[in-house]
Design a protein that fits this description.
By secondary structure, this protein is an alpha/beta fold. Helices cover 55% and strands 13% of the residues.
Length: 204
């Protein structure tokens, strides 16, 4: 089984590339989705988050109020670090469990780990044969966030600034995808990426 990491900043189009790779036959494990699942009510991570941040981050149904939690950690480096310290180990354990299950199901599978914070947590946390980084200029990302998600420009720029820099992401890349163009141009890159993946070997 070959496992590749996929990352990119907010507004980069990383999720779109993941969908295009699925069409080629890849399986995708979405770390953001896993992060939501590991903090469901009753989970150890859920209880730890409440102990750290208090009852204000709990919604009426008992689940975490992600908006309230984001408001507490956004712009507060220590609070964000504390949250990551709780959530990231649980995410890693679940991702590794899913990788093991995927290998049992198909030892020849191509699995794409879609991890937005891969540059922040470090690619060595996972058994990756390579890393794909989706990259584009900050101004393009901001405009897409405004047009596609209804962000105000200041909010979009703040979200971009809170993540790893373009340089930090590119530093961990084996392949960089320039997604400053349109969907047709991105689709043209998929053949190149898929051919690259096919020649990878699992890490020893």
């Amino acid at each position: 089984m070959v496992v590749v990491g996929l990352t990119g900043g907010i507004g980069s189009g990383k999720s779109t590339l993941a969908k295009l790779l699925v069409r080629r036959g890849a399986r995708v494990i979405d770390a953001d989705a896993v992060a939501r699942e590991v903090v469901v009510p009753g989970s150890p991570a859920h209880e730890e988050v409440i102990r750290r941040f208090g009852p204000s981050v709990v919604a009426d149904d008992g689940a975490l109020d992600r908006t309230a939690l984001a408001a507490l950690v956004f712009g507060d480096d220590q609070a964000r670090e504390d949250l990551n310290h709780i959530v990231h180990p649980a995410v890693r354990d679940e991702v590794l469990r899913r990788l093991a299950a995927a290998e049992v199901a198909d030892p020849h599978a191509v699995v794409v780990l879609d991890i937005p914070l891969l540059a922040e947590v470090g690619p060595d946390r996972y058994p990756l044969a390579g890393v794909i980084v989706v990259d584009l200029p900050i101004d393009v990302a901001v405009e897409r966030l405004r047009a596609d998600r209804g962000f105000f420009e200041a909010d979009a720029r703040a979200r971009v600034a809170a993540q790893a820099t373009r340089e930090q992401r590119r530093a961990i890349a084996d392949v960089v995808i320039d997604n400053s163009g349109d969907l047709e141009q991105l689709e043209a890159e998929v053949d190149r990426i898929w051919a690259w993946i096919q020649q990878l070997s699992p890490p020893v």
